[in-house]
Amino acid sequence: MFTGIVEEIGTITKIERGTTSLKLVISCEKILKDIHLGDSISVNGVCLTVAEFNSQSFKADVMPETFMATALNKLSSGSKINLERAMAANGRFGGHFVSGHVDGTGTIIARKNKENALYMTIRLPESFSPFLIDKGSIAIDGTSLTLFEVEGQDITISLIPHTQEETALALKSIGEIVNIECDMLAKYIHRMIKQPDNAKKNITLDMLSDNGFI
Question: Which residues form the Lumazine-binding repeats (predicted)?
Fold first, then answer.
């Protein structure tokens, strides 16, 4: 489990490509301070397992399913990536529930500076629409962000200066692909509502709203 609060920008120093798989070598500093074999690390929002490590970097494998479903297949040597260690039980929860199980990808279609903010508009698959609401949460390349505008398949987010400096998201250009994980709670609520009638137990949007869930 992650929070979407990126800890460090890492760099891909080596990448081995299979037909639909990858072996990544990622250089970093903070992530290595308490790393262990088998640890889960969020790499651009994708939960990967530490396979090897040394004092400068760690290695992780990307299996075919992840290769096909995420933007990790767009990485190359030198790419900057967002990194986050799994959430510590004794730490503050600064973002939102992020599993590292990416729902799919989106495409950056616009970016604009407005005073100290960077506005980015991203086009998502139509199937994501039920999970998107104004002022709701979303993880983009592993970064916990607020949806400032939802219009059809397009969402707009705003990066404050700290987020611009501390994540690799601000380095992305129009046309680039990003990993998207929709809000976990929204997905569970949608799943419950879509259950067959005999399993709903009278769960409706009105009932959830009346009881403070949405």
Answer: 1-96, 97-193
pLDDT digits (tens, 9 = 90+) for 94-124: 788 899 999 999 999 999 999 999 999 999 9
Instruction: Return d(Cα 164, Cα 44) in angstroms, integer.
Output: 15
Q: What is the pTM of this model?
A: 0.88
Place of tokens 């390349």: 141
Residues in the chain: 214
Distance CA 191, CA 99 (A): 17
In whole angstroms, what separates CA 200 from the centre of its chain? Answer: 30
Distance between CA atoms of residues 10 and 96, nearest Å: 22
Q: What is the C-alpha end-to-end distance of the chain, expressed in Å?
A: 22
Per the listing, tokens 């990003």 go with 178
Residues forming beta bridges with residue 82, ordered by sequence position: 9
pLDDT in tens, 193-207: 777 654 556 666 777
Q: Is 184 exposed, middle or buried (0-12, 13-18, 19+ CB in 10 A)?
A: middle
Going 113 to 157 to 89 to 29, the CA torsion angle's sign is negative
What is the C-alpha separation between 22 and 26, in angstroms, rounded?
12
pLDDT of 201 reads 60
Q: What are phi and psi of 162, to 5 degrees?
A: -60, -45
Angle at Cα 68 formed by Cα 179 and Cα 4, nearest 5°? 25
